[in-house]
Specification:
Layout (H helix, E strand, L loop, with lengths): L15 H34 L6 H15 L4
């Protein structure tokens, strides 16, 4: 049986399911960050249109959540 991962790789002792889990987690995190960037852009546009700053609270909340996601939930 041939190895999928090179035996000399630093991941050679990592089970396949764990590798898949890590890749899936990274993909999901990147997708969430892309969506947050879109939401941030929309709230910034709303703030520019409406000078009353109504969307500023939502904008701040999304920026906070983005920093939380980037920090790995710390």
């Amino acid at each position: 049986m041939s190895e999928i991962i090179d035996p000399n790789s630093i991941r050679a002792n990592t089970p396949d399911w764990q590798e898949g889990y890590e890749q899936g987690k990274k993909f999901a995190q990147n997708k969430v960050l892309e969506l947050m960037d879109e939401v941030i852009a929309e709230y910034e546009e709303l703030n520019a249109i409406h000078s009353d700053g109504e969307a500023q609270g939502q904008l701040n909340a999304v920026k906070f959540m983005k920093s939380w996601v980037l920090s790995g939930g710390q």
